[in-house]
Amino acid sequence: MFSTPIDDLTFENVNEFCRSLPREGHTLDYKLDFPRRLDKVLASFANTFGGYILIGVDETATGEPVLPIVGVPLQPGLRERVVAIALDAVNPPVFPEVRVIEFESPGALAPDRAVIIIRVHESDASAHAVDGGR
Question: Residue 128 domain-assigned?
Fold first, then answer.
């Protein structure tokens, strides 16, 4: 998944990646839902090595993804929500790549869930801060 351009990722790519049970670490973070402080995660990734945040993927106590992927409810504005947090709540702003991948939950007749893939690049800018620099 790390070598595929984010715009080319499919649900099958994400599912296959999660089936290999990669653990969270310095460059990978799983979030079942939007974290209350996504700004902190974005800033910390930008301040270190960069990495991927997968929203809609739960994790075990040992940091492995929980299968099947449950996703988050599909609704308009998911990508924009991430971008707004990156631009408005992090100083200097972070410019992540964001992909919302729609899928159908069991029994659904149309896509009703999504996994949000956020790729944060290691930043060359000064340290990124949140909460007014604190």
Answer: no
Q: Which domain holds residue 61?
A: 6-123
**45 is a domain residue:** yes
Spatial separation of the C-alpha atoms in residues 44 and 38, rounded to whole Å: 10
Say how far apart CA 107 and CA 90 lie, in whole Å: 39
Q: What is the pLDDT of residues 25-77, one digit of tens each?
A: 999 999 999 999 999 999 999 999 999 999 999 999 999 999 999 999 999 99
Is residue 133 in a domain?
no
Written in H, E and C, the secondary structure of the chain is: CCCCCHHHCCHHHHHHHHHCCCCCECCEEEECCCCCCHHHHHHHHHHCCCEEEEECCCECCCCCECCCCCCEECCCCHHHHHHHHHHHCCECCCCCEEEEEEECCCCCCCCCEEEEEEEECCCCCCCCECHHHC
pTM of the model: 0.95
Write the CATH number for 33.
3.30.950.30
Provide the domain count of the chain: 1
